[in-house]
Structure to design on (365 residues):
């Protein structure tokens, strides 16, 4: 069942090309996007005034990424919230809002309760889940499935990259009906989404300094993760992975926020993982954040895009991912962070598939 892998988590990390390929599947046909499962007429999608995305844990990080893509490509305001917070804050909703609930298991009580409330309040509700027939599918108006296959490891990996890919398709569908992207650009991004499985495979087949980095840092008491824009959800997810399976305290911050507090945590003993992938609007800002980190003697591990030599002047270590349009890089950039967390947890001799205190599905509020 582990197909020769030492753990389920490692197997599932390596299954990501397939998970993403299955999720995209026949939804992209000859450069055309078909996303019927969304269950809302194009006319309704065209008139939407707002989207709210509700979820927990890793699925929440997918929501953060989804927001960047939807706002950028489809120009609809998106709000995301942790389901268990949203439900108790007396939320404001109207019928021109689409509420998307993301839960890989489809059984997370917090997210299910939030979706029930959203439906009661008259919004159109859509679930994104990996589990056919799960509870959430019975509480919403329509369902979009990720097709990542069964995920056994408590720490999510392939379901996250599948969620991201599906959210990108949702964003592109909205852009298509709302005509917010030029035709050629839409086609180009769709083609690039289609190439993600291949690029994931290229990364997984390549040689990367992940083991060396893990060896150097696995006994460190604290890790900081930084990202901006689409790099932020990647940083959040990388930090959660390390925390969950290695029990090392981590923080993830929007890089611009670092100077407002977390910078006080840095010293020569702090590894700082920075998502510094190509994004014309924020790359230079990220480099200044790296310089601020280095000035405090902390150690920078950068995730950067193939071909970026400049980053080597700034970071102590660089892990390169294949080139892809800015947002799509999130799918690729999270993989080295999953592997880094994995290697560190193994070096610490921990049970990666079954971390202490955690359950795969959280069916209590
Ligand atoms: O099944 P869900 O996507 O609703 O689960 C949400 C969280 O419980 C889940 O992502 C959790 O944070 C994982 N342990 C992450 O690795």
């Amino acid at each position: 069942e582990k197909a020769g892998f030492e753990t389920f988590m490692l197997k599932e990390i390596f299954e990501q090309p397939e998970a993403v390929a299955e999720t995209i599947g026949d939804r992209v046909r000859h450069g055309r996007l078909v996303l019927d499962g969304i269950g809302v007429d194009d006319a309704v999608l065209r008139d939407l005034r707002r989207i709210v995305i509700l979820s927990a844990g890793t699925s929440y990080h997918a929501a953060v990424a989804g927001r960047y893509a939807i706002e950028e490509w489809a120009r609809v305001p998106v709000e995301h919230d942790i389901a268990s917070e949203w439900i108790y804050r007396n939320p404001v909703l109207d019928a021109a809002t689409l509420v998307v609930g993301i839960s890989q298991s489809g059984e997370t009580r917090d997210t299910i309760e939030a979706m029930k409330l959203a439906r009661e309040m008259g919004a159109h509700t859509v679930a994104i889940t990996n589990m056919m027939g799960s509870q959430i599918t019975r509480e919403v108006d329509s369902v979009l499935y990720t097709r990542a296959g069964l995920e056994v490891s408590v720490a999510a990996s392939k379901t996250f990259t599948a969620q991201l890919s599906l959210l990108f398709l949702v964003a592109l569908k909205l852009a298509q009906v709302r005509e917010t992207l030029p035709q050629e650009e839409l086609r180009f991004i769709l083609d690039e989404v289609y190439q993600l499985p291949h690029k994931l495979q290229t990364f997984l087949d390549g040689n990367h300094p992940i083991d060396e980095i893990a060896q150097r840092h696995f006994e460190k008491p604290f890790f900081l993760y930084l990202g901006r824009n689409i790099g932020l959800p990647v940083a959040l997810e990388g930090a959660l992975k390390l925390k969950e399976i290695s029990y090392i305290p981590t923080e993830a911050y929007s890089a611009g926020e670092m100077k407002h507090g977390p910078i006080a945590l840095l010293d020569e003993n702090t590894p700082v993982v920075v998502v510094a992938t190509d994004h014309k609007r924020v790359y230079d800002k990220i480099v200044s954040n790296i310089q601020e980190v280095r000035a405090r003697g902390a150690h920078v591990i950068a995730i950067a895009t193939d071909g970026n030599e400049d980053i080597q002047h700034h970071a102590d270590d660089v892990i390169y991912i294949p080139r892809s349009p800015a947002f799509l890089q999130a799918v690729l950039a999270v993989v080295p962070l999953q592997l880094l967390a994995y290697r560190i947890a193994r070096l610490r001799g921990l049970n990666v598939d079954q971390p202490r205190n955690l359950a795969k599905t959280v069916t209590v509020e």
Observations:
- The pocket of 5-amino-5-deoxy-1-O-phosphono-D-mannitol is lined by residues 56-59, 103-105, 108, 111, 154-156, 244, 358, 361-362 (CB under 6 Å).
- The longest strand covers residues 97-103.
